Automatic annotation (TrEMBL):
It holds the Pfam family YqeY. This is GatB/YqeY domain-containing protein. GO terms for molecular function: carbon-nitrogen ligase activity, with glutamine as amido-N-donor. SUPFAM superfamilies: GatB/YqeY motif. It comes from Rhodomicrobium vannielii (strain ATCC 17100 / DSM 162 / LMG 4299 / NCIMB 10020 / ATH 3.1.1). It comes from the Bacteria. InterPro entries: Asn/Gln_tRNA_amidoTrase-B-like, GatB_Yqey_C_2, YqeY/Aim41, YqeY/Aim41_N.
Amino acid sequence: MIRQKISETLKDAMRAKDEVKTTTLRMVNAAIKQKDIDVARGRGDEHIGEDEVLNLLQSLIKSRRESVELYKKGERPDLVAKEEAEIAIISDFLPKQMSDDDLKAVVKELVGTLGATSVKDMGKVMAALKANYAGQLDMTKASAVVKEVLAGN
């Protein structure tokens, strides 16, 4: 489904002669195909699943965010703009991200449900978040919220 949407969007971008979008989507397709090849060697599966595609897209965004920070420190506004444009394009294929308030509410609910009482229980809470809300949240941000909520208990 996501692969199909990326391919359709790539075709539209090529027709519209949108170079930034075309280049970004070609890079995304190449990353997905490379992951397919890597997985096929290990597991024998032909393609990675939708959840793995989502994880790949999130990792591409994460690496671009890191690049943005470095480019800001290096005073390269041209490269910052390029990376931010790529982030926006890739983000279009991810599910709607959970707001900070929603994330905090979900974490509090999970902490109560799982009976987590200290930071030692953080792994259980993070595993439940990943299982139930994969693709809808930034796990780094989620980790900070879980620590905050567990420290408050």
